[in-house]
Amino acid sequence: MRLGLLLAVGLALVAALAAETPEFVRENVPDFRAQGYTGHEACRSCHVELYDRWAKSAHAHSTSLLTPANAPPEMLAGGPAEHAPGRSEFSREGDAFYVTTAGDDGVPHRYPVTHVVGPKRVSFFLTRMEDGGLQVLPSMREVTTGAWFDYTHLIFGVPGTDYQTPPVIRPGEPSYWTGPLRSYDRTCGRCHSSGRRAAAPAPGGGTRMEWDPLPVDCEACHGPGAEHVEFWKNPPDVWRPDPILALGKLPRDRAQDVCLWCHMEAEVISEHWRPGDDAFEFLSPTLLDNLERIDASGKPLELVYDGLPFLFSACAEKGKLTCVYCHDAHGTHHTADLLVPPDRTDTLCTGCHFEIAANARAHSRHEATGTGGACVACHMPYLAIERGHGVVRDHTIGSPLPDLYGGRTTLDACHWCHSRARGAPPDAPLIAEPEVLAAYRAWYPGAKLRPGWVRAMAGGREGHASAFDPLVQAARWRANPRLVRASATKLLGKYADRALVFLMDLATDDDSLVRRSAVEALGNTRHPDADLLLLASLTDPSAAVRFSAARTALAGWERVRGNPELLAAVLPVLEEDARAMPQDDSRWFRLGAARSIAGDDRGALQAYERKLAIDPYAAHVRRAVLEIRARLGE
After folding, report:
1. Which of 66, 297, 384, 456 is most deeply packed, by most CB within 10 A?
2. pTM for the whole thing?
3. Is the pLDDT at 40 greater than 60, yes or no?
């Protein structure tokens, strides 16, 4: 019934939209100052204690101007930093710092080093380019070890390859340090800074960003505060509620989204999220179909930020645990802004697991007072990420289960600890893997297996035929975590036409994240019913679903080339998609390609030129622009 209604509405809108001439998409970057934001200094006079704590927190120092007080020793002294496959030569003039490194022409140039990002684990550095934009320099530094390495080594390496052999990224490629993928304004600033607003257009037609205030401040979590400040400066004569968003009064999931907006690996769908909104309507999270970044149970293989694994945790899903149960975003004196000292983290667990705490030795088989007896030692081990350049606590908060999926895995606490891997307790005895596994089986003969959805994901990621039915069950079972259902739905796309009937049903699910995954999975089938469902999904109430439907319809070009009705419906959604994230050059490229297929040379030219303003190295787009101008006689 719902599909029929969607199709009827979709066909009606297609007819109306086809008669309109699409307008060129205008700039639509949020201006925080114009939307009621006031800056953190306005909070200081009333919230003195909280402000002082925040001022020392990682949030307050997420991005800082580079000064002699926070510059690393190599910059203070001047000299080289080797970071294969390149190198940097640092120099200093008073309080100003510079680096000489290969530029976008492959030749060494001197750049100012203006900012430092990340004060605790890994620091990277920014330079202000001639057009005013901020770019991430290639040299990064491990704070704990002082080791320098190349940004491409961190992000663009291939899993399973030698950590000491980073990929070679050449000048002119989007992922070279001067390219659009390394733009702080586009990719990093939304989480590492506050107060984003568009500044004057840069040379060539791009738009540079300004950040004021620089760090992640009060309004990043609490929303715009101008009305709140005015409310207390001039109290109203009659009672009305304080206009500031009260996070404690939000539904649990919406309050949790305030953390997830930044602490979750995801593609930004739209920049217009505000505290209190459903973050998943504005973000497309990494799902369990991603073999490089996350394992089948949700444990990180690369930096996916703690929020993503946490969403697969039984503590979060069944226990309704939230980030603020353990951490204080305002800052504390403890590591990771924990509410308690690191040696007392067990107290954060025993509030729920008091029966286990009463006899911890029997539960863990380790001395309760030793490092092996700590709850986090077994349930939140450190996991290596970033090609070996860092470790993070496992926020799936699961049991070790060393024979995950019935086979040996390195992502469990037992092997991690007793192989003395990075971050393991230094006093843990070195024990061979067979002995560790034998001891575990002897100690816990009745240990529960992983949830059925984990086994379904493990098989589905490999495309095993036997995983099909378990994936269908995992996708349809509403008691599963939201991201599990979406992941199972996405993985059903591997089974093409066999999954079509189930995907069509899931594409009308109540959860927009599941609908989005179903739409994306339909890209693997060319059945006519899939085209009809994509057409209906282009009018979905969720912008995220509409954008996914447009991209799926456009993928490979052939589907829209043979279906003018679908192409006509895709065009306005692609324009909406570009408006939602105007600094994303890939969205302008998709819009330009779709307009070109539709025969709209003028519209295609406008979109392609926006693409080139952000990524001037896209040779294929430059060729397309020349061809279009030739056809237009320009």
Report:
1. 456
2. 0.87
3. yes
